[in-house]
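Record type: ASSEMBLY
Status: queued
Input:
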Amino acid sequence: MRLFNLFKIATKAIILNKTRTLLTMLGIIIGVASVIAMLAIGEGSKESIRTTISAMGSNMITIRPGADDRGPARGSGGDVQTLTLDDYNVIKEEATMLSYITPVVNGGGQVINGSNNWPSTIYGVNPEYLNIKVVDLQSGSMFTDAEVQSASKVALIGQTVVDNVFPDGREPVGQMIRFDNIPFKVIGVLEEKGENTFGQDQDDVVIAPYTTVQKRILAIDYLNQVMASAVSEDDAPEAVTQVTEILRSQHKLMDNEDDDFSVRSMEELISTFSSTSEMLTILLVAVASISLLIGGIGIMNIMYVSVKERTKEIGLRMAVGAKGADILMQFLIEAILISITGGVLGVILGLGATVFIEKFLNWPTSVALYSIIISFAVCAITGIFFGWYPARKASALDPITALRYE
Amino acid sequence: MSKEIIKIEDLKRQFTMGTETVHALRGISFSINEGEFVTIMGSSGSGKSTMLNILGCLDQPTSGLYEIDGVKVKDLSRNELATIRNEKIGFIFQSYNLLARTSAIENVELPLLYNSKVTSEERRERAVKALEMVGLGDRLHHTPSQLSGGQQQRVAIARSLVNNPVMILADEATGNLDTRTSYEIMSLFQELNKKGITITFVTHEPDIATFSNRTIVLKDGDIMQDYLNHNIQSAADQLAKLPKQDD
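Status: finished
Output:
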């Protein structure tokens, strides 16, 4: 009952000072809105990175030759010839945490069909490649283990290659194309995957048996990389450890020697890229939080002025029977009402801004519920924290002095 | 013999100003009975304001006894004093002290907002009744800026009545008003007093004292005079005697 009355008194004071209250709220509104919008941008970019990487196969593990040391003195991974088919065979036999594994050799070249040609990359793999990369076929079928054994000249092509070398819309499956000078029979078309986060066109590929690519196109006997997929996403880190151990003993590395290869899971890739966007999010939120803090100081400032200005009123209220606690509550409720109303308006504005950013700037955004809860909680706490000091000051006034205050 | 509302015995109040001790009240004793209309007079520095603060439970005596309606005020906490002010005393100030931009009725309701025993319906009812008592039944929703000085003081009087106090305590309540209006206000006080309401009126204007039935004169912290007024003037008659104004 009493609290309800104090609530009424506080609301009345707010309504009597509409303009001032609104201006005070503006700080909180902008603060909350920017926190929400910034978090939405951060979450959005993080999510889009995760989605693209997951689309590339979230269980995927890549093994590359050369140390995972990007120091200036080392050669790039591609030049190193330390990863061999033997390594692949040993891993395939010994690793228990992997469900699929394929050797990978790749090289660039020209795809030619009659008068149409297109520069692309050929990947030499085994049939498990599709399971690892989580790619489906749009038409045709994958080559078989037997075709790998016999180094058959068969290939699957991505949609970009189809568009460029079969511009007339003819069904590519069953047609002959040439990669550089080697004729290949197209036996399948890969499902369209589009661009990944890094702007790479995932459909601009030619897939063929690794034996064929090794012998007939690249004329090499080593591997560019080995791709595998862990039994599950959770097992990926353990699989990485296992593969590392197998390869170290296979390469007869001493304990004091560094790895001459690198094993990385997608999870690592995700965290590498996420950490960049996380840093950015933290930065954005820090800036937004400062504006929320300034909004809070705005509330304190106004409440402080308000207490001074209403000293006589406080004296009167005390004279007619208001206790210190009543005065404290009155001003505290006022501060909290301002900050919470500002918070609600801020959330609405923040959501509006997020929609605007998504629609007109084409940035990926994702509003997390926690960001709304956090910013709302923060502004309620701001109200209490910054309202407390002036309210406390008001309640501690001596009624005689307050009454005589001019 | 009617009931004692106020009982004061050997009341002392001193202030320490730096190294000096100021004796504002030097051992005062008197009592006020129910239904009395007492004026407390004195020039500035006589201890009048200190007396008023203590009577109003805004301040506490250094020593001595102060009882209001049977409650010993000395040694009560800040909160207990607030409750006494809320339930037993009605304040009226020289400068009205109404809340700006707030309607008359809401101003009158104010003391009851701090009394959780009063429901909102009862609060409204009592506020309307109090405003009708002071003749402002038709001005319930006017804000102070829409009222004259005299009307504002009437609102303040209604506010002091609304909690059914044992005593109304007025501090120079006519100090800001012209003669005509202050006579109007005094006649209202006399009317209220006739209804049995105890009034203590602190003033330095001698003509105000003639409307009361008892006067206590303070000087330098002591009671100089305490006398019953056998020739009470009627404020209404005085008002009639004033020259008519043109408007």
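Annotation: The two ends of chain A are 32 Å apart (CA to CA).
Annotation: Residues 70-78 of chain A have pLDDT under 50 and may be disordered.
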